[in-house]
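Quick one:
INPUT:
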């Protein structure tokens, strides 16, 4: 994957943590191993980039893409695409530090995938966090991938999430319109920033508990960690989120966030399709503690 630099005097390792989902230590390993080139040359992690520099990242090896047998919860499948219900703790695609056991490894064992994204993210049109569960659409061929990606970019894809958040939200409905960018204090995290990319999340209260609220959310945009960042920003972080909110964790199963519904126009038939999924046990087990 190639990236073009749009600002001066930014360190290479800091730049890469802002465009990749990898930590600074992982990025440093990639640079030292020669998997990162700047204008065709290998440089050090502290190299200062300039506007117009081209950074080539090729950190996914052939070994990373070994198909692995995996129990996949496939909700729908045809010659063009797959809708899969991703399990808790499963990383969507390989990267530095995650070379096996990802959803992509399992999908490659099951079928062929599009290569629009090259070797890094075959078939992956959109992602959810490792410890977010729920529905994802995956493309089997490039034509389907390009169509679905365009629909997503044009905000025509329907996505509804269910989340359990700390605190009692007083309003029945609400909109969070706050730009998101990489956190200046912790490069592993995202944050609401005035110079960030536009991000809009809509929510509706489903049920209120003494110390928490069950809500549904719909996305207008799809920024990294968008829901988690937005809810933390308004003072209602997701229950059991290990990164945002600094609240007590019930266990290590991750945040109570589930991609429950997914709707889109089929790339071949052009008919609208919509899918639903049940809350997983890792979510309902924690939910019961509030009931």
């Amino acid at each position: 994957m190639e990236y073009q630099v749009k600002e001066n005097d930014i360190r290479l390792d800091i730049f890469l943590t802002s465009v990749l989902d990898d930590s600074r230590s992982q990025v440093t390993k990639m640079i030292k191993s020669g998997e990162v080139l700047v204008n065709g040359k290998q440089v050090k992690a502290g190299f200062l980039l300039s506007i117009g520099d081209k950074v080539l990242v090729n950190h996914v090896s052939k070994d990373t893409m070994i198909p692995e047998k995996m129990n996949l919860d496939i909700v729908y499948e045809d010659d063009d695409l797959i809708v899969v219900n991703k399990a808790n703790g499963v990383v969507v695609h390989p990267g530095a530090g995650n070379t096996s056991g990802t959803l992509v490894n399992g999908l490659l064992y099951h079928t062929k995938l599009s290569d629009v994204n090259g070797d890094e993210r075959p078939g992956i049109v959109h992602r959810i966090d490792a410890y977010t569960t729920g529905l994802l659409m995956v493309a089997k061929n490039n034509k389907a991938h390009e169509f679905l990606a365009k629909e997503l970019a044009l905000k025509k894809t329907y996505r509804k999430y269910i989340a359990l958040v700390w605190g009692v939200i007083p309003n029945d409905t609400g909109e969070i319109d706050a730009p998101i960018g990489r956190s200046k204090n912790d490069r592993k995290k995202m944050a609401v920033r005035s110079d960030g990319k536009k991000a809009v999340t809509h929510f509706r209260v489903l049920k209120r508990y003494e110390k928490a609220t069950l809500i549904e959310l719909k996305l207008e945009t799809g920024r990294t960690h968008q829901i988690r960042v937005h809810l933390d920003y308004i003072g209602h972080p997701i229950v059991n989120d290990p990164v945002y909110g600094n609240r007590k964790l019930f266990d290590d199963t991750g945040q109570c966030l589930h991609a429950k519904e997914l709707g889109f126009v089929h790339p071949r038939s052009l008919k609208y399709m919509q899918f639903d999924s049940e809350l997983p046990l890792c979510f309902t087990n924690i939910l019961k503690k509030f009931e």
